[in-house]
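Can anyone check this?
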Amino acid sequence: MTVKFNFRMILMAGLCLALMAGVLLFTAKEKYSPGTFHVNYSPDYAVSGDVAGLVHNSDYVVSGHYEKFIENWDMGESHLSEVYSFVVDESLLGDVKGTINVSIPHTVLLKHTLYDVDYEATLNLPNYSKPDFDKTYVLFLKKAQTKDVFGPSSVPFQVEVDFAGNVALKVNTEHKELALTTKQSGTIHFQTEQIELAPIDKITGLTNEELFAEIKAQVAAKAGSK
């Protein structure tokens, strides 16, 4: 039997194979081409930098000092808090006495899956500020719903009083973002929401006496509005 080869068919078949190989190569390059990806944490919470706003958002306002670290608390949804005992010297809003447990939100675990590879970053939350056991604090609080602790009523929620009686509103300033390199030489930027405190901060720089006078005035106004 004689087999006749059709040169035109062979040529067309070769061109088809080359075209298919080119398409596959182009698809692979498109799929694994380096790129930049952003994973942002932006929760819905109240933000205030003045006494009026902080008191308005709070159910409790206390002054005193942190006593000791109690535990790390897994709040769920990849959120972790630090719980401290806090000695209440004066209750300015709400009926709170003695020693209470205060939860300071610490970190959130952010995740991103790219080309079937999981990437993770643990970043500080906006309210995190490690307490100084030797200093006085004024805290603006609400009662937690899932644990017998008090937590932030807003961002920020802590005012630190130094030894000279000067006060400062405290927010997180460290470990707010992280960049990871992917296996395809791309970059994933993980970031928690940035709180620009300077434009809204009406508390830092006050004296201890001025702060307490403003708090008491706003607490009285809040009680009068009910």
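Reply from J.R.: I decoded it. The radius of gyration is 28 Å.
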